Amino acid sequence: MFALLKELFPICRSLTGKGTNQTLDILSRKIPMNISAFTTGTKCFDWEIPNEWNIDSAIINDQSGRTIIDFDDNNLHVLGYSEPVKGWFTLDELKSHIFSFPDKPKSIPYLTSYYHRNWGFCMAHNDFLALRDEKYYVEINSSLSPGNLLIAEAVLPGKIEKEILLSCYFCHPSMANDSLSGVVLVTQLYQELAKQERYYGYRFLFVPETIGSIAYLSQQKDSIKERVQAGLVVTCVGDPGQFNYKQSRQGNCAVDRITENILKFSGFPYSIRPFWPMGSDERQYCSPGFNLPVGSLMRSVYGEFPEYHTSDDNLNFVTEKALQESLEIYLKVLEGLQENRVYRRTNPFCEPQMSKLNLYPKVGAQKLRDDEFCRRMWILNYSDGEHSLIDIAEKLDVSILDLCDTVKILKEAGLLEVLK
Ligand code: ZN
Predict the structure, then answer these.
(1) Cβ contact 128:75 at 8 Å
(2) What is the 8-class DSSP label of residue 313?
(3) Rounded to whole angstroms, how far apart are CA atoms 174 and 160?
């Protein structure tokens, strides 16, 4: 994952343009993807697909001809979607086109102006303060013209039509944790899940944030509610911070309960956050018209870590270890979702005589019953066709994954059948 992240990191991405195409080309070599294009001007609910933005170079030179800002040094230096510009400007004129964060004086901010025509440069506040009162030569070689916005999908079919949605966004330029960590984790998840037996199918979605998920939803409006069993927006999973789960808007659906259950027994520190209508693409998936069962499992939450949307969200901030731990937790959550079925006793009247089936401890009436026996009793009692496995795991206060082997034993003994 880290190697892929390193390969993708330097590319200048945006909602559209050559950098996004290049990113999807690299990802297509890892996993089979279907790419769909939305042309500029296409209406998607209240939105419209913007022009395609491309940039070749951008500089600011001082009066003596010395280059003081160069897009080639760091792609964050240019305000995303800057229109082209060329000419001499006084410091005062230039100031309204320079963006810096006074509270993070050494970091270059990551800023965009997608829907309002503008041009600008982002720089460390200390460098901004050092600008002398003189004339500067500015040149941004960019273009804004009709083109395409791309969305990529990969699908792993399951036994049934229903799917688990894993959504990430690839529109950020050189940001390692926000955006890219999600892209590499989703790619890795495809590779891991391709090897597994699947009850639900999986849909891996790579979009430019906001406009991409809006375009996708506008195309899938009539079928997506039926199709999505559960979903997660995957981002900010590469930093060493604690896990944070942002619940779906519904707040109590299977993905919410199972993610919390897995985190609780993971040994990692974590917190659970109720849904709030800011953030990433879950804003669209959980808009009232869709209200999909989609949450977001992160480590540090976007907007809250000091490196967020600055040049400090780089390859030093993300670690291989953190990515691996996130992968491990995601795989467990997905396993929990796959295993969360509803069972029914084949004969629900009284307890089965388990000693006949060799399922009862050899010496009866012991004070301490082993955990396995306890799990058997709970599952046999609550497998009434109404309680799902996560219901039982919550009642017993154990990980849902700890119940899977027991279910298998009881099924093989003919005591349980799967209802849904
Ligand atoms: Zn972001």
Answers:
(1) no
(2) S
(3) 39
Q: By C-alpha distance, which of 98, 27, 45 is closest to 283? A: 45
Compute the distance from residue 160 Cα to the ligand 1 centre, in Å.
34
Record the tokens describing residue 275, joined without a space. Answer: 């849904």
209 Cα to the center of ligand 1, angstroms? 8
Model confidence at 394, in pLDDT bands (50, 70, 90)?
very high
Per-residue pLDDT reduced to its tens digit, 312-358: 999 999 999 999 999 999 999 999 999 999 999 999 999 999 888 88
**Sheet (strand 384-388) strand order:** 384-388, 342-345, 416-418
Q: Are 33 and 44 in contact (CB under 8 A)?
A: no
Report pTM. Answer: 0.96
Rounded (5°) CA angle 166-172-178 = 60
Kindly indicate the confidence band of residue 369, based on its pLDDT and cuts at 50, 70 and 90: low
What's the CA-to-centroid distance between 13 and ligand 1, angstroms? 12
Measured distance CA(255)–CA(247) in Å, rounded: 8
Confidence of residue 386 (pLDDT cuts 50, 70, 90): very high
Q: How far is the CA of 172 from the centre of ligand 1 (A)?
A: 7
E strand or H helix that includes residue 134: none
Position 362 confidence tier, pLDDT thresholds 50, 70, 90: low
SS (H, E, C) 242-308: CEEEECCCCCCCHHHHHHHHHHHCCCCCEEEECCCCCCCCHHHHCCCCCCCCEEEEECCCCCCCCCC
What is the CA(148)–ligand 1 centre distance, in A?
A: 21
